[in-house]
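Researcher: Quick one. two chains, 586 residues in total.
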Amino acid sequence: MKIHQLSLFVENKPGHTAAPARLLANEGIDIRALSLADTEQFGIVRMIVSDWQRAAEILKSRGYVANTTEVLAVEVPDRPGGMADVLVALDGSGMNIEYMYAFPYPRGDQAILIFRFNDPDAAISRLQTAGINVLAGHELMER
Amino acid sequence: MNSVLESAITDCHPASVPDYLPVAQLRDMQLKRMQAVVARAWQQVKLFRSRMDERGLEPAHIRSLEDVAKLPFTVKNDLRDTYPSGLFASPMKDVVRLHASSGTTGKPIVVAYTKEDVDVWTSVVVRCLAGCGLHRGDIIQIAYGYGLFTGGLGAHYGAEALGAAVIPASGGNADRQIMLMKDFGVTAMCCTPTYFLHLIDRAAELGVDLRELPLRAGVFGAEPWTDSMRKRVESASNIEAFDIYGLTEIIGPGVGCECRQHRGLHIFEDHFYPEIIDPETGDSVPDGTEGELVLTTLSKQAMPMIRYRTRDITRILPGTCDCGRTMRRIARIGRRSDDMLIIRGVNVFPSQVEAALLEIEGTLPHYQIILTRAQGLDQMEVQVEVTPQMFNDKIGALQGLQAKIQSALDHVLGIRVKVALVEAFSIQRSEGKAKRVIDRRTV
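Model:
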């Protein structure tokens, strides 16, 4: 249920995000989802890729500082209120969302929300109890 | 067994014999060699001859070691100004090797060696390594650059003459360095301390625990480092770290080295005569007082250096060392007189930045200081490389780290600086030495 997300430290300067993206592209790694958290001076690129172990090795071998984090991918209907329903289900659980980002499917009427929780296992059971679909890694890649 | 005898048995080599010369005999030898080298430089080196003439001095005026204070100093610019061979005291047919200093702009500083000079150099490096407890049977990997830089070849000749198995890995390619260390059971590394820190990082990433390897010693030099760095390195790799000292102008690595007592660095005084002076006035100061280290080469043929001002700030440690060596010791060099930065009127040394960074859990001293001037005011930015240990994919955690570094620096330096987190390896390194200060201030 938990998905490996790759996070990468980059300086907030022109070209600093493009270089690692190009590097992964050349190695045939597909980036399924990406979010960029930035401050004035540096940023963190977070991404879900087709082969996270190989991607991590490629980046590290080129001197990038990268780590992997376990995140959850939640499937929601791509309509007004789709995300709100999930957030409401988590409300009052005391569960802390460290960060999240969303992306729509290229086809179909579903969207994916990526969450980093302080306690992912507790989050999984809470979401499943509420009837929300938490995707496994292979499910995310197959779509 | 008394400790002197014990150390003489365990950390010696036949080449180490002069380490234990009785002091009177050593002083006598130094005087004779001093007189010979002054005579040689006077006969062969025009610049030295003219400076002696200006003072009305001749080699015969050197009758005691105290008379050294009468001799003119040599400074780094003298080597630049006389490029390529103005300070050579031997014809090229007697020269077997050239080296040049690294990391400077413009003309390099070139030094020459005769066969005898290379032999002396080799012997002092053997004495350094033996003093670190290394001997035949050790497997020594040399990760200093090989080439014009003195580090690689200097350490190499010494390690080989010691009888150790030498792996001339040269600088760079951390993965290969770690592979060799692991697969050949390397017992000692010779490199810069910052490069070794990098190897520690990379080994952790590769899942190699350096503490489980046969590695037991590190001989680190070519840049100043601190005791906090020693602690960090030793605990991360379970080795004994030694400080080796040297400079291209004098011979290269091997001018001095720590012994296993780790209480200062023994200077191989039978070849390099040390003095400490007040850098402002040029006057000699007594042993124990801090000042600039000045060295005279006592046996060099191709390029004798008379009273060379090293710019390194240290003091001669009074008293004798428990290891029994009679060679005097200098304190670890934490700074250079030309290292000092004056920022908004406050004196700042790069070593203070290193010490502050090492106070913070998880950080490594991979840093660079950038100085600029805005509206007539000096601005200091400290760029710190983000290592895998420091990285966290939450913005808040990185900002917290940045704030922590900021407050540690404010506290140590007493001035407000800007802290920037930068990508790993973005700070330029030359010969494995990181360039610590970029001064873009214009008057």
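The two ends of chain A are 16 Å apart (CA to CA).
Researcher: Thanks, that's what I needed.
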